[in-house]
TrEMBL record:
<dbReference type="GO" id="GO:0046872">
    <property type="term" value="F:metal ion binding"/>
</dbReference>
<feature type="binding site">
    <location>
        <position position="422"/>
    </location>
    <ligand>
        <name>Mg(2+) 1</name>
    </ligand>
</feature>
<keyword id="KW-0963">Cytoplasm</keyword>
<dbReference type="InterPro" id="IPR020568">
    <property type="entry name" value="Ribosomal_Su5_D2-typ_SF"/>
</dbReference>
<keyword id="KW-0547">Nucleotide-binding</keyword>
<dbReference type="Pfam" id="PF00986">
    <property type="entry name" value="DNA_gyraseB_C"/>
</dbReference>
<comment type="function">
    <text>A type II topoisomerase that negatively supercoils closed circular double-stranded (ds) DNA in an ATP-dependent manner to modulate DNA topology and maintain chromosomes in an underwound state. Negative supercoiling favors strand separation, and DNA replication, transcription, recombination and repair, all of which involve strand separation. Also able to catalyze the interconversion of other topological isomers of dsDNA rings, including catenanes and knotted rings. Type II topoisomerases break and join 2 DNA strands simultaneously in an ATP-dependent manner.</text>
</comment>
<dbReference type="InterPro" id="IPR013759">
    <property type="entry name" value="Topo_IIA_B_C"/>
</dbReference>
<dbReference type="InterPro" id="IPR003594">
    <property type="entry name" value="HATPase_dom"/>
</dbReference>
<dbReference type="GO" id="GO:0005737">
    <property type="term" value="C:cytoplasm"/>
</dbReference>
<dbReference type="InterPro" id="IPR000565">
    <property type="entry name" value="Topo_IIA_B"/>
</dbReference>
<feature type="domain" description="Toprim">
    <location>
        <begin position="416"/>
        <end position="535"/>
    </location>
</feature>
<dbReference type="InterPro" id="IPR018522">
    <property type="entry name" value="TopoIIA_CS"/>
</dbReference>
<dbReference type="Pfam" id="PF01751">
    <property type="entry name" value="Toprim"/>
</dbReference>
<feature type="binding site">
    <location>
        <position position="500"/>
    </location>
    <ligand>
        <name>Mg(2+) 1</name>
    </ligand>
</feature>
<dbReference type="InterPro" id="IPR002288">
    <property type="entry name" value="DNA_gyrase_B_C"/>
</dbReference>
<feature type="site" description="Interaction with DNA">
    <location>
        <position position="447"/>
    </location>
</feature>
Length: 635
């Protein structure tokens, strides 16, 4: 394949990116900030997919900038006749330019829109691109999309070295004082290591002095098993379904667990398609068709009673669906949903044929999977009856609620807030301290059920769960169970978990988050779930009172007060605060600190909940031992 200036096509103009960054990266918050890294990484991964790169090194530098270096061919540096500029300059200063519009340079790529490099450049305070090609070390520098140092040869390339090194610092004028989160970088590198089997990915965190290497030869099958970590498996070795139809390559890794949850991650040309698309729809349909076909042929479904639906058949399944295709069509610049019909038909054919083959070759496993689906159908019917019972109850009048819901006056859900409060004493203070115009209080008695270990029908028998479902108003559903979930019924646009700052409070908060993650995930995805941050300390200096939210904050303040007299009170629970203090510190929108719960990485979140709340004891013990040094002792 030729890869020089002739392979680069220009569709015109780098305008408006700085004025409307959300159009290109989805927003200027945490997600948008890290999207810059993902765009540059995608370009390096494309070199690996094309067969030219074997290693990508990402470095978080001491000044907060990020470097991504591959050992591929190196971006072309020769002049583009129609532009009169070197190809590397055009790629970094012109929207819709690059080697992705012409299949002579890349057969498959994730950087479809040709906006990645130029958008990152436009939204960075500065960018430096170094190219190692044909024995020379080239360098070009930019600031906010403009060339500051023209392309120049700065020396010879080390012997045999080729590739591209991009270093950039996101612009504080666009993103404020944000910084790269190493855990998000590690999560994406780990994800890519599964999707491109054999590619070596290195992350050097020079700020915290840590280096990680990701290299996986098991591909998407290993990925599926990693996704199910912490769950009891129905069988040990994951299955790989692999095939090609036309120009579309399909790879699916899957494994079944004894649990109630299902997790299916989808990718197109290594890009995570968070909103699914044709490949996800086709996978679910073909998977169900193959399983039903096998069950019918093997005479497994002889029972009367509810028949398994698609969701029943998926229960306990962890799968990764990856497609590679030459002309991917996505919904929006951030590539959340795949639209190509040919991807759907390829997945449908490969999954149906290969999965049916696996079932026929493994009759014992096939029987176990289908019997689990039959049990899921029975549990779904029981849950439906329980759900109907919950829906018939009026949350404002029912005596079954674990502490009466004190509702707010407004009927506008956008203004309304629901505080889910631990315990009756704190609930009492919250009810007295709140602004009843827009703040509702739901106290919970005792600990909520651990839904990671229980099914939906069991969860709905729990009084605290029923109270929350009734009060929030959207119904309840698991992964892929949106049919029972109606966001139109949402009564509060802010659902705030308010628990003590001690170990018990943390446990209750984790149980609540597990419940929202497993059965009301769209609320998290749409930014409706928050965690209140009550203060840890009350500090009085003379007549002046202030509240501090961490040990670090207290230490810094006490250093300032050296030699002065002061009084410090530590709050161990919300119940220790009077209603005025609770309002002033934790509930008043003018002064409070809220943490929004975000679902940044499905694999990480799923694994963490399974480790902390799942059936397996060993992974939980390992996690606690590994993170014990970060814990606070509350003696």
């Amino acid at each position: 394949m030729s890869y020089d200036a002739s392979a680069i096509k220009v569709l015109k103009g780098l305008e408006g990116v700085r004025h409307r960054p959300a159009m290109y990266i989805g927003g200027t918050g945490v997600e948008g900030y890290h999207h810059l890294f993902k765009e540059i990484l995608d370009n390096a991964v494309d070199e690996a997919l094309a067969g030219y790169a074997t290693e990508i090194v990402t470095t978080l530098n001491p000044d907060g900038s990020l470097t991504v270096e591959d050992n591929g061919r190196g971006i072309p540096v020769d002049l583009m006749p129609e532009e009169g500029k070197p190809a590397v300059e055009v790629i970094y200063t012109t929207l819709h330019s690059g080697g992705k519009f012409d299949s002579s340079a890349y057969k498959v790529s994730g950087g479809l829109h040709g906006v990645g490099a130029s958008v990152v450049n436009a939204l960075s305070e500065w960018t430096v691109v170094e190219v190692f090609r044909e024995g020379k070390h080239h360098r070009i520098a930019f600031s906010r999309g403009e060339v500051t140092e023209p392309l120049a040869v700065v020396g010879p390339a080390p012997k045999g070295k080729t590739g591209t090194r991009v270093t950039f610092k996101p612009d504080p004028l666009i993103f404020g004082n944000q910084a790269f989160d190493p855990s998000k970088i590690r999560a994406r590198l780990r994800e890519v290591s599964y999707l491109v089997a054999g590619l070596r990915l290195v992350f050097k965190d020079l700020i915290h002095g840590r280096e990680d290497v990701y290299l996986d030869k098991g591909g998407v099958a290993s990925f599926a098993k990693a996704l199910a970590e912490g769950e009891e498996l129905l069988y040990e070795k994951p299955f790989l379904l692999k095939g090609q139809e036309g120009e579309v390559e399909v790879e699916v890794g899957l494994i079944h667990t004894k649990g109630y949850n299902a997790e299916i991650l989808t990718y197109a040309n290594m890009i995570p398609t968070r909103d699914g698309g044709t490949h996800l729809t086709a996978f679910k349909s073909a998977y169900s068709r193959a399983l039903n076909q096998y069950a019918k042929k093997a005479g497994l479904n002889k029972e009367k009673g509810p028949q398994p639906t698609g969701d029943d058949l998926l229960e306990g399944l962890y799968a990764v669906v990856s497609v590679k295709l030459p002309q991917p069509q996505f919904e929006g610049q951030t590539k959340g949903k795949l639209l190509n019909p040919e991807a759907g038909s390829a997945v449908s054919q490969v999954v149906y044929e290969k999965f049916l083959e696996i079932l026929e070759e493994n009759p014992r496993i096939a029987k176990t999977i289908y019997e689990k689906a039959l049990r899921a159908a029975q549990a779904r019917e029981a849950a439906r009856k329980a759900r109907e019972l919950v829906r018939r109850q009026n949350p404002l009048e029912s005596d079954d609620l674990p502490g009466k819901l004190a509702d707010c006056q407004t009927e506008n859900p956008e203004e309304a807030e629901l505080f889910i409060v631990e315990g009756d004493s704190a609930g009492g203070s919250a009810k007295q301290g709140r602004d009843r115009r827009f703040q509702a209080i739901l106290p919970l008695r005792g600990k909520i059920l651990n839904v990671e270990k229980a099914g939906l029908s069991k969860a709905l028998k729990n009084a605290e769960v029923r109270a929350m479902v009734a009060a929030i108003g959207v119904g309840i559903g698991g992964t892929g169970d949106e049919a029972h979930f109606d966001l139109e019924g949402l009564r509060y646009h802010k659902i705030i978990i308010m628990t003590d700052a001690d170990v018990d409070g943390s446990h209750i908060r984790t149980l609540l988050l597990t419940f929202f993650y497993r059965y009301m995930r769209p609320l998290i995805e749409r930014g409706h779930v928050y965690i209140a941050q009550p203060p840890l300390y009350r500090l009085q200096v003379g007549k002046k009172v202030e509240y501090l939210y961490s040990d670090e904050e207290l230490a810094a303040r006490l250093k300032e007060l050296e030699g002065k007299s002061y009084e410090v009170q530590r709050f161990k629970g919300l119940g220790e605060m009077n209603p005025e203090q609770l309002w002033e510190t934790t509930m008043n929108p003018e002064k409070r600190v809220l943490k929004k719960v975000e679902l940044q990485d499905a694999l990480e979140a799923s694994e963490l909940f399974e480790k902390l709340m799942g059936q397996e004891v060993a992974p939980r013990r390992e996690f606690i031992e590994e993170h014990a040094r970060y814990a606070e002792l509350d003696i």
